[in-house]
Amino acid sequence: MTMRVLVLGAGGQVGFECAAVLRLTAEVLALTRGQLDITDSDALIAMLQNWQPDVVVNGAAYTNVQEAEAKEAQAHAVNARAVGILGEQAKKRRFGLIHFSTDYVFDGRKDGAYEEGDTPCPLNAYGRTKLEGERALIEADAPALILRTAWVYGMRTHNFVSTILRLARSRPVVSVVTDQRGNPTFCRDLAEAVALLSSRLQGQRGGFEAWRAWRGVYHLAGQGMCSRFELAQAVLSLDPRRSEHLVRHIVPITSPELASSVCRPERVNLNTNLAFERLGIRLPPWRMSLQRALAG
User: Fold this and answer.
1) Three-state secondary structure call for residue 145
2) What CATH architecture is 4-157+184-223+268-284?
3) Which among 9, 63, 227, 246 has the fewest CB atoms less than 10 Å away?
């Protein structure tokens, strides 16, 4: 029997890639925000009731970190309240749920790598609302895999990598912060992991019970850590179209020099061992994935 998957937030980079990869093996209904606003609880519940998915992949999120500071209520509606409803519905209607969270639930002050059991301490509204979404799923005892990831990029939407490529082709000098470190994650790697997890859990005897057995928080991000500055250098050196670059110098700066009103964690290295040990999933080294992404 073909697995039925509902992908929410299909207009974003993660949701779009998840839908594309899942279509290779499953019956997929992929909805953008324009097609279904998940903050409309009645519309969300009606869709779940009518389509009756085996798995829901929630790629919908309020991800604008700067805007979230001024619009925390709106961010909460998407990142927390709607997520809680999804969790309740997953338990009631017996479907597996995959939900994406973020390294921004941490403050970046730990010396070593962050594990799933470490105490969250978000520094901004985006991190707070994503953490509230995690807690809503846990409190609902939802059959959900909560995948914390980091520094997600792709080639079709606005993100750090695409911004560096655009700036490299338009100006001779680009300034990049050196004091923010994390795990770059290619959205297609995430999508392939989601497809594998969905197929593996849904295919186990009992189906839904497998989702309940493996529910919880997992870290899933590109292997290895670098600074934003190092990532920018790698983007420029690996870009197959580097002959088009106008940039001649990448200038290292610190976060305070950005004059941003949003506080961001300086160093978050996600330990992904639990996802490998329990779920058999590990993403490739970040530089390898970056080369694959840039090659198209």
Assistant:
1) strand
2) 3-Layer(aba) Sandwich (3.40)
3) 246
Q: Of the residues 62, 104, 126, 153, which is catalytic?
A: 126
Determine how β-strand 216-219 pairs with β-strand 144-149.
parallel
pLDDT band, residue 224 (cuts 50/70/90): very high
Residues contacting residue 173 through CB under 8 Å, at least 6 positions apart: 247, 248, 249, 250, 251
What phi and psi, each to the nearest 5 degrees, are found at residue 24?
-70, -25
Residue 153 a catalytic site member: no
Question: Does 134 have pLDDT greater than 90?
Answer: yes
pLDDT band at 296 (very low <50, low <70, confident <90, very high): confident
Please give the backbone phi and psi of residue 85, each rounded to the nearest 5 degrees, phi first. Answer: -65, -40
Q: CA 186, CA 169: separation in Å to the nearest integer?
A: 22
Check residue 158 and give its pLDDT: 87
Phi, psi of 169, deg, nearest 5: -95, 0
Question: Among candidates 81, 12, 93, which has minimal Cα distance to 46?
Answer: 93
Question: Rounded CA gap, 95 and 40, in Å?
Answer: 20
Per-residue model confidence (pLDDT) at position 256: 85
pLDDT tens per residue, range 54-91:
999 999 999 999 999 999 999 999 999 999 999 999 99
